[in-house]
Write a structure and sequence with these properties.
The structure holds two protein chains of two kinds.
Chain A: H1 9-20, E1 27-33, E2 36-43, H2 48-58, E3 71-75, H3 87-98, H4 111-114, H5 123-126, E4 132-135, H6 142-155, E5 160-164, H7 174-188, H8 198-209, H9 216-232, E6 241-246, H10 256-267, E7 272-278, E8 286-287, E9 292-293, E10 301-304, H11 312-329, H12 341-350, H13 355-371, H14 379-395, H15 397-400, H16 406-424, E11 428-432, H17 438-448, E12 452-459, E13 468-473, H18 499-503, H19 510-528
Chain B: H1 18-24, H2 31-61, H3 67-90, H4 113-132, H5 145-165
The chains are: A alpha/beta, B mainly alpha.
């Protein structure tokens, strides 16, 4: 017979409280007093959330437990020498990992209290009654901004549908459009007031999405007037309908204007609005040849979040405010409790001021610091994490870009690495802005994939009308445990960059580097031979 | 129904719960009459808050070495402010000694209610220690005298916001 081990009264409380912190046991001490013992949970900076978790846990403790009323939450008397292995740090690490993917469910009901506003204060725009396209690289905060608008709608009982387009990844067919429309109407049917037939429209679009390709356009077009009428049944000036399309770049660029065009035909003048997000370089919202889609600025306003390294000082503040919010949530006074300012500056540079990359890097740096028995998060730990993150980014190439682009992306990336690290010993460079150049177009893709980062969008270092974009190669390519000493880091800290500094950067001339690349290829071919 | 220290006629002796009284007299008494009861209850909440404030001011004035007296008065300050909050929140009011067991029962709409719930319970245990344990030392306190003062300052400020929002003229 297996005997169930009975926990003692103290252990029961520790277990309940740990459950409230996702099975991470907070530090505690037993305080001896003349009237008996007290369990004192210790945090660096306890707050209302921490007290709430403990109070909730105590609510689950047996009424007869003699310690039920003898539990306290106190701040530690002094900062421990080792902050890396604190339970609060483990909580933070878990919190950071879980917040890396933002969707409609992120933070649950606590979204508004835990949301950190964007650097550009786009929050006032995104909740407006207009169509918006939010552009940004992976991790720049696109989905967060859409989620902010979604919670704004929830708070005001306004109908909406949220479609994560990753489910239609790389789809090029019109069946996908019918499928997305079915999803939209299916979600909107939750607001059905019985006078509308949103559910049957959803079912009809689903049927079309599963049909043969031939007659699809006509079938979709024929259903649009009925769909528009159904949408009008739940939309009003006071409670407009919002269609959120998250990661529109996930579907094929050829299909994006078609999808937007069809949805716009339903929403236009119907108290309904489209709010979409995407990676700019992989998004095509307007097809000028077919005149399909949303033509900015009159059909839709663009909100661009990719300003990261063009204003590094503001980006640093933004990233630190996000990290601080997570740290407070976990009972820490701030992120500077775990890493000093120099380390946080390096973090911002290494993440190229992309918020999600910074969170991911910091989480990994905690692990690196712990493995190395470091007492705080150090620059060495950040550097070590960075070189691993770049490997992850390399794996993402095929995910966001078309398969056909992969070779040219890898090829140009290799040439830029060669130019920066081996030839010029610097991480920053200029590229001439020339939309006719294939290399310039590929550079845009490298920007989108976060291999290179914009320091300045357009400077004229030599001749008037000859404009250059200033770029920084991702830190992951030249730092390991420590930054490669041969590479001069620019910028050295997240600060405002002066035009005269940028003008001095070396110009990456793609035709020159092709020679380097050809030589490398020939060498490799000879070796194989 | 009786409350220690109160004699008739008194609004808190008219019913075990004035909030419930008003609710059940709707349709019997006119709105202005009900309003008069409500105003009288608000006045009681105000007096309870002021009683708490008097204890707080006295506790602050005591010398730091008087840790037992300070903790005791800080607790009574908190307890009476809590009574004001409860009376205005759901009409609950008691003069029984067992009422101290509910010092941690606070409305969720009170700002930082979870923090105060746990801390007031701790302060109650500290007050018992300070008042009754002849062998206790100041270091035995769960909340230091200094932190108890800070706790009271914050609790009274948040309670004031709550009470004012419920029509209590503080």
């Amino acid at each position: 017979m297996i005997m169930k081990t009975q926990l003692g009264p103290i252990q029961s409380i520790i277990k309940e409280v740990s459950k409230g912190f996702d099975n991470i046991s907070p530090d505690y001490v037993l305080k001896d007093r003349p009237d008996g013992q007290f369990i004192i949970f210790q945090f660096a900076a306890a707050n209302e959330r921490i007290h709430g978790v403990v109070e909730n846990a105590l609510g689950h403790v047996d009424a007869g437990n003699p310690f039920k009323d003898r539990v306290a939450v106190n701040n530690r008397d002094k900062k421990p020498a080792n902050v890396v292995n604190l339970p609060e740090t483990k909580m933070l690490q878990k919190e950071l990992s879980e917040s890396l993917t933002v969707d409609r469910n992120t933070f649950g009901d606590n979204f508004t209290s835990r949301y950190t506003a964007s650097v550009t204060d786009y929050e006032t725009n995104i909740v407006g009654n207009a169509n918006y396209i939010v552009y940004g690289r992976r991790g720049s905060g696109k989905s967060s901004l859409l989620a902010y608008a979604m919670h704004h709608a929830i708070d005001r009982n306004q109908p909406f549908s949220w479609i994560a387009l990753q489910a239609y990844n790389k789809r090029t067919d019109l069946n996908a459009v019918a499928g997305i429309l079915s999803d939209i109407f299916s979600e909107l049917s939750e607001y059905d007031n019985t006078k509308t037939d949103l559910s049957s429209v959803a079912a009809k679009f689903l049927e079309i999405s599963e049909g043969s390709a031939g007659s699809l356009p006509k079938k979709i077009d024929r259903l649009l007037p009925r769909a528009r009428k159904a949408m009008a049944g739940i939309a009003s000036r006071k409670a407009p309908v919002t269609i959120f399309l998250d990661d529109i770049h996930a579907i094929a660029t050829s299909l994006q204007p078609k999808l937007l065009s069809v949805i716009y035909s339903l929403t236009r003048g119907n108290f309904s609005y489209i709010k979409a997000s995407g990676i700019e370089q992989f998004t095509n919202i307007w097809d000028s040849a077919t005149r399909e889609g949303l033509e900015p600025p009159h059909d839709a306003q663009l909100l661009k979040l990719d300003h990261n390294m063009t204003m590094p000082d503001r980006s640093k503040k933004h990233i630190l405010s996000i990290l601080d919010a997570h740290a407070h949530y976990c009972g820490l006074p701030g992120i500077d409790y775990l890493a000093d300012d120099e380390v946080l500056s390096r973090l911002v540079l290494v993440a190229a001021a992309v918020p999600r990359d910074a969170l991911s890097l910091f989480s990994q740096a905690i692990t690196k610091a712990s493995i190395k028995s470091q007492k705080a998060v150090t620059i060495t730990a950040i550097n070590a994490a960075a070189s691993e993150v770049v490997e992850e980014k390399l794996k993402e190439i095929g995910r966001d870009s078309g398969d056909a682009d992969q070779d040219e992306i890898r090829d140009l990336l290799e040439r830029i690495r060669e130019f920066c690290v081996r030839k010029k010993s610097t991480n920053a460079f200029l590229v001439r802005i020339d939309s006719r150049s294939a290399d310039y177009r590929t550079v845009q893709k490298l920007i989108a994939l976060r291999f290179v980062h914009i320091l300045h969008e357009g400077i004229t270092p030599h001749k008037v009308a000859e404009r250059y974009v200033a770029l920084m190669l991702d830190f992951g390519f030249y730092i390991g445990i420590r930054a490669a000493k041969s590479v001069e880091l620019f910028p050295d800290t997240p600060r405002l960059l002066a035009a005269k500094e940028l003008r001095k950067l070396p110009v990456f001339n793609s035709s020159d580097s092709k020679g380097v690349q050809r030589a490398a290829k020939n060498l490799s071919a000879r070796k194989m031979g | 129904m009786a409350h220690k220290g109160l004699s008739e006629p008194h609004v808190l002796l008219a019913s075990s719960n004035p909030q419930r009284l008003m609710k059940n007299l709707v349709g019997i008494l006119a709105t202005p009459q009900l309003k008069k009861i409500d105003v009288a209850v608000c006045e009681e909440a105000k007096l309870l808050y002021q009683l708490g404030n008097d204890h707080y001011i006295f506790a602050k004035s005591l010398d730091a070495t008087e840790w037992r007296q300070k903790i005791s008065r800080f607790y009574y300050a908190a307890y009476n402010v809590k009574r004001a909050v409860s009376l205005r929140n759901d009409g609950s009011f008691s003069t029984e000694s067992k009422d101290h067991q509910t010092v941690d029962v606070l409305p969720p709409t009170l700002r930082n209610h979870s923090t105060y719930s746990g801390r007031l319970r701790n302060l109650r245990e500290d007050r018992n220690l300070a008042d009754y344990s002849h062998i206790a030392k100041e270091r035995d306190l769960v909340i230091s005298v200094e932190n108890a003062g800070i706790l009271l300052e914050e609790f009274m400020a948040d309670a004031k916001v709550f009470l004012v929002s419920k029509g209590v003229a503080l």
